[in-house]
From TrEMBL:
One of its GO terms (molecular function) is kinase activity. Residues 133-163 form a coiled coil. Keywords: Coiled coil, Kinase, Phosphoprotein, Transferase. The keyword Lyase does not apply. Pfam families: HATPase_c, HisKA, Response_reg. This is histidine kinase.
Length: 424
């Protein structure tokens, strides 16, 4: 069965040709524009190409020139089929035939059969160079127009990107400002500093405190994303213990694992694991990985945490689970801000898709990185974890960080400062 590719933007014309050719025993492939037609031709290798000259994207002349440059399609007949077009120009650019619309339904299949059998139309030798030169000029004009359109679109995208970054910065700070008194007063009320509470009031305030904590975490994440977007994520370095930081992060998310009925197994060495860097940011990065595991591990599943010292001297935290894992084609994109595997309004998982981006940027700022392996082959405390495994590494001593936001050299001094709150 011969395979015929029909490149045509009009659905009615595609339907007519498809019915005529299928009734004659041909397999029909269809494309609605020039770019899709070229893609199908190069991947499906049809026995004949029917191309309308007036199609969006690349027009029929440009499609023909492109296909004639494809070695795998050498010898494949290309037939122009159009209501408006020039026979001589069509043949000059490489078409083997020219059919005028409307086509004759009765003779159409037999005409196609002749082209498949080797029939070709020829252009007088004197006409070829002139027609090619005229078509080349039209193609250059078309290309110039497209380049101008793309340049304008690119400039507009840059403006929108800058406006988006500015919006993140403004909205994050505007949200953070009223959060300070809210957090303070809720805590005063919950601690009964402003008077005794009955049981129902205490329960209500505890629920409010949990919501405020989650809202504050979201605002902090947005501020971090702004830092990533502008390249101005700041680090406050001091001495800390990597193992102790891991334990503190685990303690903060223990309830999430319990609520999701996820078993948590740990392989933690004996401490201490001394380091120099931003323990606060590192702890938040760890929490992002733990919460990610808690979110995607189904009830009754298992998540594992392991800390080791690499031969390079870096510390490594592995967080693996028995969840669905991450598809190979999405493993690089999950570290992009706001990217979510399921970004629909009805998605099964919450969040705004910034946690992994923050975790990776934090790790890189501390001399390491975050990577993912899925499916995972990790075995932690005898549990085989086949979902996704995330590996966060940091240097024992964080490198210099210069984000350009302040003058002078930024970074830790040659020996740790006595003031643990010193910043870089």
């Amino acid at each position: 069965m011969s395979k015929i590719l029909h490149i045509e933007d009009d659905p009615a014309n595609r339907l007519l040709v498809r019915k005529l050719l299928q009734n004659a025993g041909y397999e029909v492939l269809e494309a609605a524009d020039g770019l899709e037609g070229v893609r199908l031709a190069c991947t499906q290798h049809p026995d004949l190409v029917l191309v309308d000259l007036n199609i969006p994207g690349l027009d029929g002349f440009e499609v023909t020139l492109r296909l004639r440059g494809e070695a795998s399609l050498a010898g494949v007949p290309i037939v122009a089929i159009t209501a408006e077009g020039d026979r001589d120009t069509s043949l000059a650019v490489g078409c083997d035939g020219f059919l005028q619309k409307p086509i004759d339904a009765r003779s159409f299949p037999s005409i196609i059969a002749r082209y498949l059998s080797g029939a070709r139309e020829e252009l007088p030798a004197s006409q070829g160079p002139l027609r090619l030169r005229e078509q080349s000029q039209r193609i250059v004009a078309h290309l110039e127009q497209k380049v101008a359109e793309l340049s304008r679109a690119n400039a507009r995208l840059r403006e929108l990107d800058a406006a988006r970054t500015e919006f993140y910065r403004n909205i994050s700070h505007e949200l953070a400002t009223p959060m300070t008194p809210i957090v303070g007063y809720v805590k005063l009320l919950a601690d009964e500093e402003l008077g005794p509470l009955n049981k129902a009031q205490k329960k209500a305030l505890l629920a409010m405190e949990d919501c405020v904590r989650r809202l504050r975490s979201l605002i902090d994440n947005l501020l971090d994303v702004t830092g990533i977007e502008t390249g101005r994520m700041r680090f406050m370095h001091s001495e800390y213990d990597f193992l102790d930081t891991t334990r503190r992060a685990l303690a903060q998310v223990a309830d999430r694992f319990a609520e999701g009925k996820v078993q948590l197994v740990e392989e933690l060495p004996r401490g201490p694991l001394p380091a120099w860097g931003d323990a606060g940011r590192l702890q938040r990065a760890m929490i992002q990985l733990f919460e990610n595991a808690a979110k995607f591990t189904p009830a009754g599943g298992t998540a594992g945490v392991r800390v080791i010292v690499l031969q390079s001297g870096h510390y490594e935290l592995c967080v693996a689970d028995t969840g669905p894992g991450v598809k190979a084609d999405r493993q690089s994109r999950i570290f992009e801000p706001f990217y979510q595997v399921d970004g629909s309004a009805t998605r099964a998982y919450g969040g705004v898709g910034v946690g992994l981006a923050i975790a990776r940027r934090t790790a890189r700022g501390l001399g390491g990185d975050v990577r993912v392996a899925s499916p995972s082959n990790e075995i932690i405390e005898g549990e085989t974890l086949t979902g996704a495994a995330f590996y966060l590494t940091v240097a024992r001593r964080a490198p210099f960080q210069d984000d350009g936001s302040s003058p002078g050299r930024l970074g830790p001094p040659s020996s740790p400062p006595t003031d643990p709150s010193s910043s870089i």
